[in-house]
What does this fold into?
Amino acid sequence: MKCVFFGVLMVLGLILSTAYATESVPEKVEASSKELKREAKKTVNRAEEALCTESEAECLKLKMKNRTAETWDALKDKATDLKNKLD
It folds into this structure.
């Protein structure tokens, strides 16, 4: 009986002592604005790729460059969001 009671107390103590990390309001606004900016860049890139009149190789090169830049921006933003959540 004592072991069960002690176990319940341990579990409750661990649950109640867990720190919940949340972003502050300015950090949430920053994250939203970065996401909107990324989406706008993505839309512009897609339009630019659709209007490409160069050779197929040049169009693929442009497409790859755009995808790489988009991925890099997304990774930077996610790293910043993670840092803000942990702070």
